UniProtKB/TrEMBL annotation, chain B:
Membrane among keywords: yes
InterPro entries recorded: DUF485, Inner_membrane_assoc
Transmembrane segment boundaries: 25-46, 58-82
Matching Pfam families: DUF485 (PF04341)
Keywords, sorted A to Z: Membrane, Transmembrane, Transmembrane helix
UniProt keyword annotation of Membrane present: yes
The protein, known as: DUF485 domain-containing protein
């Protein structure tokens, strides 16, 4: 009877094993433990980074006078610099720690995520970068509203921007607080406040110029740190990928066998308990069930082939769409294209960014496999709890690996880099959120384009401070919440609201204001609603029973993005107003400017 | 831009050539990238075992080089576009802009 019970349990656990959290790589979450001893090398290196970046902020502040300086670094960043800055803006701590942790845990699936995060970039190069640069000034709303009615389109674009920025920002703040707690032994609340204050200082004083340089420096530090780790991993295995994979598979096998052994012991204990009618029989059966679940999951897992992600084809495709098109709708990324002098530099910058980001993801793959190998056995004991789990949570794989390959000082370096990474990303996000409020809402909607430049900058700085404080509060409020869905939601909304409106405004002559605004909001609300009604919020956050969710998929993008495009098309073709006709007539001049750059914003030559 | 400038640019054969070449390359390469990526995702979704086959008898599966190749292809395809745009398209654009100033 026990045996058949166990078989049933194994079946159930098979199903469990195939439903890994789809957004596991999106954020640093879960309960973490505070580090007890102070990590001195990390603190020293982090202080050096902070001092250096504040120095840059001081330098940048003296050069940041006009609105163009504040939003777009005067348009004087080179393609190569911007490529690094884009990489620095995009490679968040969540993707460094999260993806290497995912590879460490499930192997190949981590690579599927990396690929999704990368393949949006070529599309940005071919379809968006230069057109955006030629048409816009500071925000993507400049482009979306180029020939449409300013007020409604700006309000939509600012909403899309702020929602994406807020979700992304909360995920980063919570991640930052937990990471710092683990790495530096600093209390969560202080950590979040520290990040908030530094981010406010970079952005309010140094604007885009300081933000850009913080991102460039962070990208260089992260790429060199990750390169060193990957090199040490490859050195350990004699520069043979086959050896690396062999050892990793062997470690996983050994782990699965140990778990199977444990499950057997538990099953025997349960059988004894039942046959002797012991009072703890049900508890013994439960623990046997848990052990068998873990053992079956481990035995079934294949780190060399796609696994949990494939539980459902619709989800896999939907996730792919969110990653690919969401990248092209992230406001803080789109904003970076206004910092270069012309279309040529814009396209060069995406080329460099694609190279850096692709290289980085190959490194995280090696780092994840290296962590499997090097954090195992005798040598790996010091990184693990008694239970066998990594100290500080599974997202710490890359951090522990840095200790294993480079000792205390390198651990300090990588910890400081992880912190710097968060700072660079939140600074970019905040600047983008602030510009949506000051440039799109204040200057274009409230002041109807007649705002005084000094006032606009003042509004922007005040918004930065307000956003910073809000981010600290949200970061603290969400400490105990499950925030794994947030980055996924941000990508889904970017793909379902911002991206369709932006791409249609650049390529489709018949787009009208009504179509853009209705379709954009439909995409935004659909994505939001379906995620809340889906398993990642309805079950995992709101705690409803598994299976009671209204919407069966974790990722709604395949539905919400399609619906947004259909709505934009339908409402636009049905729009026969006089205004619609005027908007269509303005497509030709817009098209000529987007192709040739005639009339595009120039650079100020100050840097 | 003045209306007559717009009209002149639109009728400039060089502008038409630029639009034709740039659009066809942009959409072609976008399509290639989409095909590569969604081809991969469809295999992941419907036939994951395909990627789990051994590459040459060892533990390395064919999924590994395929994944790395997709990452490289993104970079290479972007490079192809940027190279042509920086030389051929930019030259055409300069000529169109010069003509428009006359």
């Amino acid at each position: 009877m026990i045996k058949s019970n166990l078989q049933r349990l194994s079946l159930a656990s098979l199903m469990l094993a195939s439903s890994l959290p789809t957004w596991a790589a999106g954020a640093i979450e879960g309960a973490v433990e505070k580090r007890h001893d102070l990590n001195l090398p990390a603190i020293v290196m982090f202080l050096i980074f902070v001092a250096f970046t504040l120095g840059i902020t001081y330098w940048a502040a003296r050069r940041t006078k006009s609105a163009k300086d504040f939003y777009a670094a005067g348009g004087g960043i080179s393609g190569f610099q911007n490529g690094l800055a884009i990489a620095g803006d995009y490679m968040s701590a969540a993707s460094f720690l999260g993806i290497s942790a995912m590879v460490f845990g499930v192997g190949y699936d981590g690579l599927i995520y990396s690929i999704g995060f990368l393949v949006g970039w070529p599309l940005i190069t071919f379809l968006i970068a230069e057109r955006l640069r030629n048409l816009g000034k500071y925000t993507f709303a400049d482009v979306a509203s180029y020939r449409l009615s300013q007020t409604p389109v700006r309000i939509f674009a600012a909403t899309g921007t702020l929602v994406v920025v807020a979700l992304y920002l909360i995920a980063q703040m919570v991640g930052a607080g937990k990471l710092i707690q683990v790495l530096f032994g600093l209390d969560y609340t202080y950590a979040v406040i520290l990040v908030g204050i530094l981010m406010i200082m970079y952005v309010t004083f140094g604007g885009m110029l300081a933000t850009t340089w913080v991102q460039i420096i962070k990208a260089i530090l992260l790429l060199s740190g990750a390169s060193f780790m990957a090199f040490m991993v490859m050195k350990h295995v004699g520069f043979s990928f086959e050896t690396l994979f062999q050892q990793a598979v062997a470690v996983k096998h050994a782990g699965a066998e140990a778990l199977a052994l444990k499950a057997n012991v538990a099953a025997e204990a349960a059988a004894t308990a039942i046959s002797s009618n012991a009072p703890n029989a049900s508890a013994a059966v439960a623990s046997a069930a848990a052990a068998s679940k873990a053992a079956v999951a481990a035995a079934k897992a294949n780190i060399m082939a796609p696994g949990g992600l494939v539980s459902n084809p619709i989800d896999a495709i939907s996730l792919g769409m969110a990653l690919m098109f969401g990248t092209a709708g992230l406001p803080h990324i789109l904003m970076r294209f206004f910092t270069v002098s012309n279309a040529k530099e814009a396209r060069k910058s995406v080329f460099y960014a694609t190279g850096f980001i692709g290289y980085f993801y190959i490194l995280t793959f090696i780092i994840g496999f290296g962590a499997i190998v090097l954090l195992s056995g005798e040598a790996g004991m010091k990184f693990k709890e008694v239970s066998g789990a990594l100290i500080g949570g599974s997202n710490m794989a890359a951090i522990h690996l840095s200790d294993a390959v480079g000792g205390d000082y390198f651990l300090g370096f990588i910890s400081a880099v992880a912190f710097a990474t968060i700072l660079a990303v939140v600074a970019g996000l905040t600047l983008s959120g602030a510009s949506a409020v000051s440039h799109d809402i204040y200057a274009s909607v409230i002041k109807k384009g007649k705002a005084n430049e000094a006032d606009e900058i003042r509004v922007s700085k005040l918004t930065t401070i307000a956003l910073g404080i809000l981010a600290m509060f949200l970061g603290i409020a969400f400490e105990q919440q499950n925030i794994a869905f947030m980055v996924g939601l941000a990508f889904s909304i970017a793909a379902s609201a911002n991206f369709p409106v932006l791409i249609m405004s650049m390529f489709w002559k018949d787009l009208t204001t009504r179509g853009a605004v209705t379709g954009g909001f439909v995409g935004l609300i659909t994505a939001l609603t379906l995620i809340i009604l889906g398993p990642s919020v309805w079950v995992e956050v709101l705690g409803h029973e598994k299976g009671s969710e209204w919407f069966p998929y974790k990722n709604p993008t395949i539905f919400s993005m399609t619906l947004a495009f259909i709505t934009i098309w339908l409402v636009s073709v049905l729009d026969t107003s006089k205004q619609a006709a005027e908007e269509r007539a303005k497509f030709l001049p817009q098209f000529i400017r987007s192709m040739t750059g005639i009339g595009a914003e120039g650079a100020t030559d100050k840097h | 831009m003045q209306d007559h400038t717009i009209e002149r640019i639109q009728q400039n054969p060089k502008f038409q050539e630029l639009v034709r070449k740039k659009s066809s390359l942009s959409w072609l390469l976008s399509f290639v990238m989409l095909a590569i990526y969604y081809g991969f995702i469809l295999v992941v979704a419907f036939s994951p075992a395909t990627l789990g086959q051994s590459l040459s008898g060892g533990v390395t599966t064919i999924g590994i080089p395929i994944g790395v190749l997709i990452i490289l292809s993104a970079f290479v395809i972007t490079g192809i576009y940027v190279r042509r745009a920086n030389t051929e398209f930019d030259q055409l654009t300069r000529e169109v802009v010069e003509d428009a100033k006359k």
